[in-house]
Design a protein that fits this description.
The structure holds 2 protein chains of 2 kinds. By secondary structure, chain A is mainly alpha-helical. Chain A is built from 21 helices and 2 strands. Chain B is mainly α. The chains are: A mainly alpha, B mainly alpha.
Chain lengths: 497, 169
Amino acid sequence: MSSLIESLSLIFTIQGLLALFLGVTLGTFVGAMPGLGTVVALAMMLPLTFAIDSGPAIVLLLSVYVSSVYGGSISAILINVPGTPQSAATVLDGYPMTREGRADLALGWTTGASVFGGIFSVIILVVAAPTLAKVAVNFGSIEILALIIFSMTTIAWVSKGNTIKGLMAACLGLFLSTVGQDNFTGSARFDYGYFPLTGGFHVIPILVGVFALSEVFHQAFVGSGSRIEFAGKVGFTFPSLGEWMTRKKQLLRASVIGSFIGVLPGVGAVTAAFVSYADGKRSSPNSEKFGTGEPDGVIASEASNNAVTGGALVPTLALGIPGDGGTAVLIGALIIHGVTPGVRLYIDEPVLVNMIFMALLLANVLMLFVGAFSAQIFTRILKMPASILMPIVMMLSMIGAFTVRGSMLDVYVAVLAGVVGLFMRYSGFQLAPIVIGYVLGQPFEEGLRRGLLLTGDQPWRFFESPIFCLFIGLTVLVLTSPAWTKLLARKASQNAQ
Amino acid sequence: MDQHPKANIHSERIAGTVVGLVAAVLLFTTFNGNYFTLDDPDEVRTVLVPRILLLLLILFSLILLARNAFGDGKATAGEVVNWTDGAGWTRMAATVVITAAVAASLKFVGLYLAMVAGIFLIGAVIGFRRWIILGFVSFVAPALAWYVIVEIAELTLPGGALLKLTGLG
């Protein structure tokens, strides 16, 4: 109880409340800007957090994380372009509502569903993360190594239709983390006599390059100097409690789906939104109206994608394994602020953990008010063409890359990562596995090398650990899943005949 | 979903070849004298994980290239863009060059001047034609960023020539 009061006292300061408000407002704003998304929002806010205490800094980043997912739905509803990929399914029913002149109601449904999904997932996080951390206390280097291998494989496996490219991106991220000084021996790796490289790469320049600058270059290719026009009147109408009660089943189902998918490493909010949308289409009493402006469609997508935020934080906080690109950046940002997510976090920093839970809850509640009062403002902001927004994104990206370590190398790395990221996007590679791989690179190497030291350079002895066997078994199962699902389907069709 | 399969197949080939070759070169460099000592096994271990990862990258590149050459010809779609849009490529190349020039000049001319030029030029290249607004944003946005980062957050940004000239740097 005392730690709860202590954690509340960290938030309810002028700095803490300002961080909360600023985080939700800016997160919603950046999330609403097509092409930017959660990762870019976090990377851009990071320099601002250097000037404040670590408590409010973490509150700010968490608020940005949850509200940017919600922000994506605003542009999905108003201009038929999802601000973040997570809101792609919201377009299907949100925009038809706008065309019918019901944009105000669509914004009300999406805000309510996002807030409910977010709060539901925080409750799941509060219950599940400490339990998972208790189990994970028994994990040694070998077990953590197996867990990382399993997580990376899952992330690569769910890479849109191409496991090989997902694995390549993950390996690239893991490799980038090995550049610079070796933590075990102190020897410099891959520096080729260039002194700044001995410090290695930092995650922030890589991610602002891969995500933000590649988007600037992409928008330059597309070229858009035109203003965006809105269909219908824009405002905010929150549906009545009675209307919510008629749709409570959809709301709950979507929140459960989102929270569950969020816990799985790498699957993410995009999948959650579409799985939930498909489930809603199957189970809703208004299923035949899906795709024509049905609120159940908006609820299914938005409650689930916001529920992913809390779900993805379960492995992030309990194990230090990021669930998606956003949580990978969050881990990097937390480490910069002296907080290392993982099993020890619950034992060493109970006040901080409670503060994280409270901040997430408050950020979700605040989203309701920001959504309600800023609909008109967002309508104006979204009219800003990409040709004026993208140069500003370029500037913020470079500032973000530079301020992390005050090194020009980081700026050059960001530009190079931008070009590489663009090429990877055009070649069908997923970008998130690079960042997740980079974040997991150090624990991966430590796990493998410590494991080798413990077993006297006999890697086959790793299999003496049942947890190692379990995760490697699951990895093999995931990698061979296309083969055995085909086999099962063939057997089922043979039985049917 | 894939509107331009040929272009995607081509980009997959380039990606596979570039990643494979770079990984092979980097792998080769791990066998130079820097990491090799007979009496200290830890020195060899320092490149153990990078070697494993580089070998995996080479392996995956080969699989990608083999699938591309002998598979069913269906490359996984990347971003759907109009690959034949010459003007688009020109705009993108110009934006990359301007961004690289801004990055290279930061140290010498400072963040403010580099960004004024960068924002104006990239805005113009992407297609913004309301010059007064673009000029206004080019001057105000970096000034605002400078104020927030340097004055409020008390962090350092590259000052460059402008600050030296004004005697503030």
